[in-house]
Amino acid sequence: MQILAPAALFAALLIPAAAGAAIQTETVEYSHGDSTLKGHLVYDDSIEGKRPGVIVAHEWWGLNDYARQRARMLAELGYVAFAIDMYGDQRVTRHAPDAKGWMQQITANVEDWRARALAGLEALKADPRVDTDKLAAVGYCFGGATVLQMAYAGANLDGVVSLHGSLPPAPEDSDIKASILAAHGFEDPFVPAERVAAFQQSLQTAGADWQLVVYGDARHAFTNPAAGDYGIDALRYDAEADSRSWAQMQGFFDQIFSD
Questions:
Q1: What is the pLDDT of residue 19?
Q2: Among 107, 146, 204, 55, which Cα is nearest to 196's?
Q3: Which pLDDT score, from 0 to 100, does residue 10 have?
């Protein structure tokens, strides 16, 4: 697949597709417990037959335009992309206290957190365009931790990619089937060096297939061009780290989907 630099795509992705365009979007309703969730499915309808499916897990802000744009970028590469809804009730915010509270509601119970993410995976697998033998998940910030939890739960994924996630260590009883790629900013103040070390050691102990790529001078949210708009010093877009991590993700997918 062609490697595309992400930064140049965002402005174009904000423009609605013309009628008859190849890229199509659908809202997919699914549930977890008593919650009704609405995910964003994106695919290229000019492609015939089944193709790999990729979950996109959003930042702590909720299922916003950024997550939808990333799903579309994946669809442009030929995947069926499904941006899952981890909060429900169409909750999206630009205020950190709200985002933190919603995230903590989800992460307080790890089993429920995993189950909600896996409900999104089942919704993706139900789409007839998806090759259910070729599945992956990509997550940003809170979403990065979410896709790692999917891997720790033993989900039948070929691989997961965490981009500026919080890098929770794998529990000792983890049954990890997925290959893991984590992209981390060296200057990310939300993830101390001790946690990074614990994350690496836990994956090594679990016998996982894992790799951690660290970008010097990159802070949290380095892939999001709007990171600086939130007024939080820890968040900063880094075009070079964004481009490199996108290319590394594509190479990772080429490998895990090669069979």
A1: 44
A2: 204
A3: 52
